[in-house]
Amino acid sequence: MTNAIIDESELLNRVEGDEELLCELIDMFLAECGKTVQQVLDAVVHEDAAELHRAAHKLKGTVGIFGSAETIQAALALETMGREANLANAAEASTHLQQRIEALRNSLVALREKYCTKS
Amino acid sequence: MYKVLIADDDRLSCKLLGSLLTKWGYEAEIVHDGVAALAKLKQPDAPQMAILDWMMPGLDGIQVIQAVRSSGYETYTYILLLTSKDQKGDLLDGLNAGADDYLKKPFDNDELRARVRAGKRILDLQAALIDVRDNLQFSASHDSLTGLWNRGAILDKLNQELARRKRTGDPLGVVMADIDHFKKINDTYGHLIGDAVLREVTRRLSAAVRLYDAVGRYGGEEFLMIFPGCGAARLATSAERLRHCIAEDPVETDKGQIQVTLSLGLASAEQGEKNSQGCDSFIRTADEALYLAKVNGRNRVEPTVMAVEAVGQRRDSSLGAR
């Protein structure tokens, strides 16, 4: 289930086997991604292309840390729409992004159970 | 430890980057926007390497790079631009703005580590070159045996002081000093001991003057010293102190104690004195007084000689007698 969204061994590689760092990153993500996702959604609703560009770009960077290609792709699609100021498909894309992020969240929560029980 | 600045508005990115760099032995400083990044890079003890995210609030990475590059800081800042943009044009923009290297997000750890190491090599090279430059600057202006200002440098200092007093009218004193019978010391004990005597005389003279006085090795055993703010009276007092600090105790050498004395000639200009003497005239006047100190028995301070014409000739014909 977890492996579908996140490449666990790749992620451990990325933190050089430092589980404590992994847990910190997961906690930061879980605490902050909601806010950034909301910024993306708001930008779509307000048809604010510049803000969409910025927020989606930032979300893409954050998501990138966990190496989840599909989620990165979903954020990139919105970032591109923002940059090109073409928001025709933005609502649909943002719904898709929301789903991907939700899946990522669930995977990270599972990962947290596995590695971060001590705290 | 190498300091590396990390500037990224994404806190997760910063956390990961900072932790990795710390693991690899660097000291990470983290900021979250371009304005803070630029402020950090302008500090006196700024990190010499910076990893900048392209898109940041305030100033973006490119603007930070442009500001750093146009400011002409003394040392070079090696800048890695972090970007998730991957179109060719964007990368060229980054490199043209002055980035040294770039890395695409999400970055590969090994690649990041190798690129940071490449930057460190450049910075190490820069540090080595600055060292060489500083050493060259030192040896171009200092005497290698004594570490004092060399002849060219002490004359430069004198010219600077003369230019300053032309504006301020402050008094200025110059001392020309020569070790008595130095040739005899060399002949008797050898040049190594002669060198040791020169170094000890240097040490005592340097300790006896004020911080803002200047001591230079003018010739073989001849010293030129500059005393800003000292007219004839204060210069005479200082010169007597210099004479005494050499004569009071013998110099300890590998071949035993050697009694060393100094003859000193003075030249000075008083507060507001209008017909400001030039460099050559100061040197000549002090030199002539020094000659008189020799003639009058050595180990003594001779104030400025008023009638100079005849003295100059006498000196020329008796240089060997020193």
Task: Provide a descriptive summary of the structure in words.
The complex is a heterodimer of chains A (119) and B (322). In chain A, helix 2 runs antiparallel to helix 5 (90-115). Chain A has one domain: Four Helix Bundle (Hemerythrin (Met), subunit A) (Up-down Bundle), CATH 1.20.120. Chain A has 119 residues and is mainly α. Helices cover 77% and strands 0% of the residues of chain A. Chain B folds into two domains: 3-141, 3-Layer(aba) Sandwich (Rossmann fold), CATH 3.40.50.2300; 151-319, Alpha-Beta Plaits (2-Layer Sandwich). In chain B, helix 2 runs parallel beside helix 3 (61-71). Chain B is elongated. Residues 307-322 of chain B have low confidence and may be disordered. Chain B is an alpha/beta fold and 322 residues long. In chain B, strand 3, helix 3 (61-71) and strand 4 (78-83) form a beta-alpha-beta unit. Helix content of chain B is 50%, strand content 19%. The longest helix of chain B has 33 residues, at 109-141. The A-B interface holds A 13-16, 18, 21, 24-25, 28-29, 32, 54, 57-58, 60-62, 64-65, 67, 72 and B 8-13, 15-16, 19-20, 23, 53, 55, 84, 105-106, 109.
Kindly summarize this structure in a few lines.
The complex is a heterodimer of chains A (119) and B (322). Chain A is an all-alpha fold.
Order of helices and strands of chain B: EHEHEHEHEHHEHHEEHEEEHEH
CATH class of chain A: Mainly Alpha
Secondary structure: helix percent of chain A: over 70%
Spans of at least 5 consecutive residues with low confidence of chain A: none
Topology:
The complex is a heterodimer of chains A (119) and B (322).
Chain A (H helix, E strand, L loop, with lengths): L7 H7 L4 H27 L3 H16 L4 H16 L5 H26 L4
Helix pairs in contact in A: 2-3, 2-5, 3-4, 4-5
Chain B lengths: L2 E5 L3 H13 L3 E5 L2 H9 L6 E5 L7 H11 L6 E6 L4 H10 L3 E4 L4 H33 L9 H18 L3 E8 L2 H8 L1 H18 L5 E4 L4 E7 L3 H16 L3 E3 L2 E3 L3 E8 L9 H17 L5 E2 L6 H9 L5
Parallel strand pairs in B: 1-2, 1-3, 3-4, 4-5, 11-12
Antiparallel strand pairs in B: 6-8, 6-11, 7-8, 9-10
Helix pairs in contact in B: 2-3, 7-8, 8-9
